[in-house]
Amino acid sequence: MKEPRRPVxxxxxxxxxxxxxxxxxxxxxxxxxTSHGTSYTAYFTEAAGLQPGNTVRIAGVTVGTVTGVSLxxxxxxxxxxxxxxxxxxxSTVGIDIVTILGEKDLVVDPLGPAPQNPSQAIPASRTASPxxxxxxxxxxxxxxxQVDTTSVAKAxxxxxxxxxxxxxxxxxxxxxxxxxxxxxxSQDSQIATLLAGTNxxxxxxxxxxxxxxxxxxxxxLLLAELEQQQQxxxxxxxxxxxxxxxxxxxxxxxxxxxxxxxxxxxxxTTVLERNQANxxxxxxxxxxxxxxxxxxxxxxxxxxxxLCGLIPQSYGGTQPATGCEPPR
Length: 328
Prior knowledge:
alpha/beta; seven-stranded mixed sheet; elongated
């Protein structure tokens, strides 16, 4: 006897197979048996915001991914994979700022006559880190918050009083410097709040970096498509202008013919408006007439007709009790 099928079990197994295949597809780069290319290691004096997952490029082409960033003594150890590209034994590695929002890439310049040994790390003498403006502003804000501006203003006032008997130009310069210091000291909390808000804004914009890149890429695609279609759009506009000119000439040439025709059309419209009630009544009567005609001719290639009173009653014909009268 044939064993009955189990649809629930088959459905569960099918869903598990689909889930496993989907997971393998999305995590193929993390599987141990898949090829990631050649792994290299480089030492930097500072990480400069580089993170695992950042792109590795050679001559602007993506060739790999940063796999790890860790501290090794006083240096930063960066591990990265390179797939399908040659790296020489004199190659230099640098951290490059890709966008104004601070996204980093690892840039490799493949120099040297022999290939780089993957087991030997690239020393810090052949690596370079960028100057991070965002980090510098954050450090400036932190240092500024630690400065005692009140003490600085008091010191400048004392210096101004000490140089009171100096020439007027020196005294005025020091007095103005003291006034400036007092102004800065009075606005200390507002400036600190402004710098903190700037840091928060930089972090928020940096977190939305992918969306900004996608927006810029979409804008570039749109501009490229418009540039490609520029000739077609120009031809369309030129053809439209030529068509307008031809229509204008046509209207001018046929104005003597179109004017009487439009006048006659107006008279026809007036007649139809006057006989609107008659037209409606004709349309109402056309419906029953069409239905009766269909009943007569719809049974086949003949007419269905009934003649009442054709045979006299004395001949045995059956007639209605009230007599045969034509319809009204």
